[in-house]
Input
Amino acid sequence: MAITVSIPTILRTHTGGQKSVEAAGTTLAQVIDDLEANHGGLKSRLVKEGTLHRFVNVYVNDEDVRFSGGLDAAVKDGDNVTILPAVAGG
Amino acid sequence: MLVIRRDLVEAMVAHARRDHPDEACGQIAGPEGSDRPERFVPMLNAERSPTFYRFDATEQLKVHREMERNDEVPVVVYHSHTATEPYPSRTDISYAQEPDAHYVLISTRDPEEHELRSYRIVDGVVTEEPVQVVESYMFAHTGVDDTPDGS
Output
């Protein structure tokens, strides 16, 4: 079993158009490093200066990781990681 | 061009009026690939602010899952400006990450007459587009399938 990661439209250029890809790791940071290894360019769209970019929301299953440790959030095989663009403005 | 049913325009304007002087925000879902806005989804503005908006992240995930189940995409992403013109702000442009969406802005700065405009925002470039308000999609050329909407 692996971790399934849902990729939003805007980032699918990095996954060859795939809506979801598989990754491995026990924390969100490791999952993102694994994504980067297979789909170069994703990490810089998700992480800035060691924290999650304010332009994205990341969820492990149904939990917004901002409330469960951010990049340190625990992830296990079988989990779903969902990345959504933050919708915001002024 | 954005082709949109009148009742959906009225729903966005009513939401913007209701939340004034705070900004209101939401989306209108439509079948993937259709470019036809159909299902009105007002969203909570987690900022509850007259100068800023942000979809509530938990609600956004819930709505995203519903849309996935229905094979829908956000055809329209809308928000209001309550004291300025309906033109995307610098923050709006920096956050715009749906290249296929119509970004609709509604200004409620005038208590009587609203202003509504629509844009494409791709890679930081804003392009205004005409808005055609229709009573029904039955006779409007809105996509390859032109399926009657049953109304």
Notes: The longest helix of chain A spans residues 28-38. Residues 3-85 of chain A form a domain with the Ubiquitin-like (UB roll) fold (CATH 3.10.20.30).
